[in-house]
Amino acid sequence: MLDPGVGSLTWAGTTEWLLGYPDRAVRNLEQAAARAYRLNKPFQIAVALTHGMTVHGLRGDFRQVAEIGERAVKLCTEKGIPL
What we know:
Blueprint: H1 4-18, H2 22-39, H3 42-59, H4 62-79
């Protein structure tokens, strides 16, 4: 089950992007990832990272997509997460 804080921040970030607030979107997604890391929940970290990759991609920040993607792939490979 996804932590309500991680889930709320993740979807808030995606929603902020859709509403036209890219800086807020990034901030919410960074907070979601930070919370997931604090909770030490690998699946929740992966969810936050993949949503973050999507928003960074929509912003055209492909360097960030690559960096976050590397972290996500490493985490998912180590923990056996099929995401």
